[in-house]
Design a protein that fits this description.
Blueprint lengths: L1 E2 L4 E2 L7 E8 L4 E9 L5 E12 L4 E9 L20 H4 L15 E11 L2 E8 L24 E10 L2 E13 L5 E4 L2 E4 L4 H4 E15 L10 E13 L10 E15 L3 E12 L6 E13 L3 E11 L3 E11 L2
Antiparallel strand pairs: 1-2, 1-19, 3-4, 4-5, 5-6, 6-7, 7-8, 8-9, 9-10, 10-13, 11-12, 13-14, 14-15, 15-16, 16-17, 17-18, 18-19
Length: 326
């Protein structure tokens, strides 16, 4: 259920169905495939290969295909969320500019990771980028997935310290808005010319995430506690001839979360999200999220999550999810 100052509703969503296949093809090469049928009646695909080389202490991996970039496969904040929703830092358009990039979206490309030790690694990736509606995998009739002629680049360093860890993150990209798009400035409507000086944006994201695992209670009776958070600075650079005359839009985005693991494979958690934008009709947005998770063996995962979301109007909601794995 959810609501705000204008409307409220409750209801059911059609379940997502996901089919996984993963396995080794050779001594060094493995493959992962995921097909997901979600509530939008679209099929989301991940399909990539991963090459391993080196020794048990120092090794490298090469991933190539259509895949998560770092979100949900990284360490120290970039791993999968405990609840249903992902932090806004990873799942939202941070600046509010026309650029449709979101850190957590799947893309087509390749990345290379080198582990100096089993618990520290550096990652470099090249990806096609996002298309005009925010997809890095939808294609444009030529298989590239985006609309500009340049690739995007990612760099990251990750370090695990026991069960805790941190990630340093940087991303630089290009994004092209469609020529002919109508842009209104005041009472004047402008049409974007078919020129890179009117349509081609550049953008970057830099920041860090971290998690700290510790024991507040007796670990033999109650599970560990985890403090997790992250900060990203976002900057979108406008084309020289863009009708609004803006040079750039920036945003500071962060989240802080606390999770307590409990007996019987259960967890409770809280997360605070903040996005502070330099301009736009929604310059600051916050979200408070609380939830509980219960896992029954390895087959069933039950999650309940509630949130209060502050945009131009307050909204609130509750999500309940049952996930069956077999």
């Amino acid at each position: 259920t959810s609501g705000n100052s204008y409307e409220s509703r409750s209801g059911f969503l059609k379940p997502d169905y996901t089919l996984f296949f993963a396995g080794t093809l050779t001594k060094n090469l493995s493959m992962f495939t995921e097909l997901e049928w979600d509530d939008t009646d679209e099929i989301e695909l991940q399909a990539f290969g991963e090459w391993f080389g080196g020794s048990a202490q120092r090794f490298y991996t090469i991933r190539f295909g259509q895949m998560h970039t770092l979100s949900r496969v990284g360490w120290g904040g970039f791993d999968r969320p405990s609840g249903i929703s992902t932090p806004d830092v990873l799942s939202a358009n941070l600046t509010g500019s026309p650029v449709t990039f979101k850190i957590g979206n799947d893309q087509r490309g390749m990345d290379v990771a080198y582990n100096f030790t089993p618990s520290s690694r550096i990652i470099a990736g090249l990806y096609n980028g996002m298309n005009q509606v925010g997809s890095g995998a939808a294609g444009n009739g030529q298989g590239f997935g985006d609309s500009d002629g340049s690739m995007d680049a990612l760099m990251a360093f990750e370090q695990m310290i026991g069960e805790s860890g941190f990630t340093l993150f940087g991303y630089y990209g290009n994004w092209a808005q469609a020529a002919g798009t109508k842009v209104t400035v005041g009472s004047v409507t402008n049409t974007l010319a078919d020129s890179s000086s009117a349509t081609d944006f550049k953008f970057y994201r830099v920041g860090a995430t971290a998690s700290l695992v510790f024991n507040v209670f007796d670990p033999k009776r109650v599970g560990s506690t985890e403090l997790q958070g992250g900060y990203i600075y976002a900057n979108d650079l406008y084309p020289d001839d863009y009708p609004t005359g803006e040079d750039n839009r920036t945003a500071n985005a962060l989240w802080v979360g606390l999770e307590q693991r409990l007996p019987h494979d259960s967890d409770v958690f809280y997360r605070y999200d903040l996005i502070d934008r330099s301009a736009g009709t929604d310059p600051q947005r916050t979200r408070h999220t609380v939830g509980v998770v219960r896992t029954v063996q390895e087959y069933l995962r039950l999650t309940a999550e509630g949130f209060v979301y502050d945009q131009t109007a307050n909204s609130y909601g509750v999500k309940i999810q049952a996930m069956l794995n077999f």
